[in-house]
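JOB MANIFEST
job_type = single_chain_structure
chain_count = 1
residues = 412
[input]
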Amino acid sequence: MRVTDFTKNNGFAAQMLSYAVSEAAGKVSRLLVVVVVARTLDAGAIGIAAAALATGDILKALTENGVGQRIIAAPDNELEETCNTARRIFRAWCFGLFSLQALIALVLFAGGYTTTSCLLGILSLEYLFMPGGLVQAALAMREGKLHQTAAIAGAQVTGANLMTACLALLWPSPAAMVLPRVLAAPIWLILMRRLRPWQARPEKGCAPLRPFWSYGWAVLGTELVKVGRMQADKLVVGALLGAEALGFYFMAFNAGLGLATSFTQAFSVVLFPHLCAAQDRLGALRHGLGHCILLVAPLVVLQAALAPVYVPLLLGADWQSAAPVVSVLCLAALPTVVWSATAGWLRAENRPVQELLVSGALAVCLTVNVAILAPFGLMAVAQGYLAVSTTIMLGASLWLLPRQTLILKRIS
């Protein structure tokens, strides 16, 4: 099936709903983790695990190098050559990331950070499972199998979260929050290879590396900056306020930007192949953005309003003071929806450098926000996070998108 054909058979709304359900299932199971961890581990232990997970996530952003998107957008007559080159890149790239993270773990171990180094070493094993299924995943998305890829991603995340909850009950330690990520990696690999079988065909040759590099460096930079933006605030809070405050902020952030952000992430995943397939790209962007806003906005407002109710109910009475922080962080999902649409359109238009510039400015401003406001408390940090992200994301969207794109027409 051609990439330009799949939207005829699978509606955008249905595909986004599949990913939204998958993401929501992961976030709901994550809430179970939050509940169990809050009742079995102290804030200091949570902070140690959060630091390791944040560092690992920053490195894992390097896997988002634009290679999969080159497969999705490749012309039919260049597909096999593109896949052959992509396979080589994925193998070398993932092994390099495994080696880099293992090296960082060794350096931390030599510096006396024994627990953190062990956690990072465990997380590095995940890279060994990834190369075997990345080409298959991109091909499945190219062919419109987003319902199935959503189910696989949901199974991996939900499985890891359930294992985390069980381990936290049986073995209350920071390792319980890390080990399940590696244990769940084979779930994704096996299911993805069964969904879209593919074998390299060396006789077809390989595509040149230059197009991968010219497109991928900006995508890679954007993803690295993005995860840095999502994790740098936690690292700064930990450095300035200590492990206990970091554990408090980590829990509030997950509870606040959890379920609502899952729909934004689903939107981003589905939008790119949707735009690549559309003849009227601006119309497709308006269509997708309209659906996402109608779906996400009520959910975000409801979640923010109910935070004083569900935070102590889920986490316990000791976490009641986190409810206002959770409410504020919930609202940050709204500008993220608009910026996600803008970023997807820029990538489809082969303009990822502009996305990188905005993402870099956003990351710097948010990190400075945390550094300046941390001494005034976590509520001040959350309010600054909302103000800065809203200003930059909406401002950049108004600047970069064609004016007519932001006029949402009737959704057909």
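[summary]
Confidence is low (pLDDT under 50) at residues 1-10, 408-412.
Residues 6-402 form one domain.
exit_status = 0
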